[in-house]
Amino acid sequence: MLKLRYLLIGLILGLILAWLWFEDETRQNSLSANLSPTPRPAPRKSKDPLIEIDGIGPSYERALNALGIFTFEQLAVQNADSLASKMSARVTAERIRREQWIEQARKRAG
């Protein structure tokens, strides 16, 4: 019975020490976070209505947005083959070329 008491006392003391250590760590982390501010991402230009391009509907616009393409400028610098391979919506590079998505984006970006 005496061994059980010592075991429980040791367990309780261990939990208290762990809790105190954790509190100290979080306090130090919050202090260091206040000293060095985290860098903010560069503000993104407002989103262009990509559906204005002939052949791009709402689903293709969502697929382009998922790739990080939100503006005509971003679409204008793409390659039809790599764009078609990365898009989640089913589209071929041939269709992108035929409907001239990139050329239309260049004209609107201009």
Written description of the protein model:
There is one protein chain. The chain is mainly alpha-helical. It folds into two domains: 1-32; 50-109, DNA polymerase, domain 1, CATH 1.10.150. The chain is 64% helix and 0% strand. It has six helices and no strands. The chain is rod-shaped, with a radius of gyration of 28 Å. It starts with a helix and ends with a helix.
What's the helix and strand layout?
Layout: H1 2-35, H2 58-66, H3 72-76, H4 80-86, H5 93-98, H6 101-109
Overview in brief:
This protein is an all-alpha fold.
The geometry reads as rod-shaped
- For the record, the CATH architecture of the largest domain stands as Orthogonal Bundle
Number of domains: 2
Strand content bin: under 5%
Give the C-level CATH assignment of the largest domain.
Mainly Alpha
Q: Count of helices?
A: 6
Largest sheet: none
Taken in chain order, the helices and strands follow as HHHHHH
CATH topology of the largest domain: DNA polymerase, domain 1
**Radius of gyration from the CA trace?**
28 Å
Helix content: 55-70%
Mean pLDDT: 85
Instruction: Compute the separation of the termini in Å.
Output: 84 Å
Q: Which class do the helix and strand fractions yield?
A: mainly alpha
Number of strands: 0
Ranges where pLDDT stays below 50 over 5 or more residues in a row are: none
